UniProtKB/TrEMBL annotation:
It holds the Pfam family STAS. PROSITE patterns: STAS (PS50801). This is Anti-anti-sigma factor. It comes from Pseudonocardia alni (Amycolata alni). Gene3D superfamilies: STAS domain. It comes from the Bacteria. Residues 180-263 form the STAS domain. CDD domains: STAS_anti-anti-sigma_factors. SUPFAM superfamilies: SpoIIaa-like. Signal peptide: none annotated. InterPro entries: MEDS_domain (IPR025847), STAS_dom (IPR002645), STAS_dom_sf (IPR036513).
Amino acid sequence: MLTVPVSDEQLAEDVAAFLAEGLTAGERVAYFDDDTAGLVLSRLADDGVDVTGPLRSGQFQLVPGDFTRAALHAPLDELTGVMEQNITSALDDGWAGLRFSGQMDHGLRRPGGQVLDEYDRRLDDAVRDHPLRALCVYDHLRYPDELIATMRSLHPAELTAAPLYDDSLLRVTEIGPARVRLAGEVDHANRPQVRRVLARLIDRVVRGDVGEGTLTADLSALRFVDVAGAVSLVHAADELPVSVRLRLVNLRPGVARLLERCGAGFASQLEMSIRERHALCPADALGLAADAAE
């Protein structure tokens, strides 16, 4: 399976969802890091996925960047055997299968030129007829368009997404009827667009099309909002008809404090709920994984 993120927010969203699905299914899950593990671990925490237990049990494996880069430089003839060995190990340990993803752009710097297309062909050979699922990530920030087009032609399935808004700094997605998610940062550059997206959704709620009088915004992955953005959210709630509510859920404590300072407590149609998050940094995750391996 392939995903072609247009931003790091989408990369984290797609990969975290893919890995979480594997954990729920009882598969062994591995992420091959090359400077993006922090993004993925943070998004897993935002999504309410606690990976501490899976790291300790060996179900979730975070592969260090130096190992990832070494694997991309290893002879391609060894790939199929290595994957079969890892599948066998996962099954022998009692897991339902093996699932992995990772950041592979270091392969672009392999001596002798790009080999990622051949790498994917060998990977496809390894996956076929085995309980193994892979999510290949070829994002526009790290890969040339020509290579992305080639990779798309090699993969039978691609994750597709239609965000309400994505400017590489902030990603807004509709996650259900009258439910929206903001991930990233709100500042002067995207504040007007955010207000327009919310206004369209609020209009649907006001008309009674969705939501039963409430628009819910999940802000678990909203890392930052400037003062003007916070004021704009409060004003959006103040301008609602009395029968309509704007509910902000899973706020990070810092974002919640800023909204309170900007008058959220006086907006009768604004509801807020805070959720503490405990995201592991890559170093801590690698430490837990190393303890599991001993």
